[in-house]
Amino acid sequence: MLRHVLMGSRVDNYERSIIPLALFSEQTGVATGWFFAVPKAFREALDIKLDQRSFEKKRYKVITQGDAFFFKEGDMIYDTPLARSLPWGEALRHIKFAIQVQESEPAFRYSSQAQDGSSKVSYNQGVVRFELLRSDGDKLSVVRFFK
Asked: Coil, helix or strand for 93?
């Protein structure tokens, strides 16, 4: 990634939060309380990981949240989990909206040297450009493109 090389060194050794942006339902496999049915498959894109933490000399597995978000071109997220579990023709009758990533740049922390010689950590927020699609029951059509 040329942009990150020009800006400085990537920083991965920061404290991750133990409060994730999304909790995933065991029944549906999607993020609970979200408008879109974001499946567990997007944990990596949301930088949600299972890490180990120590407490009173015992190690525990803990879900953690980082800020290195990265969606990929072509990623599709529907407003219903039925979109991924039914035959496509039937699923289209249940889908109202979907989003499809057209292009993206990852979010990440990086370290660079300030003019006084000290090291500073900055954050690249990343970019996601996507289309909002609507289903008429037979096909998905683009409603709007977001930058």
From this structure: coil
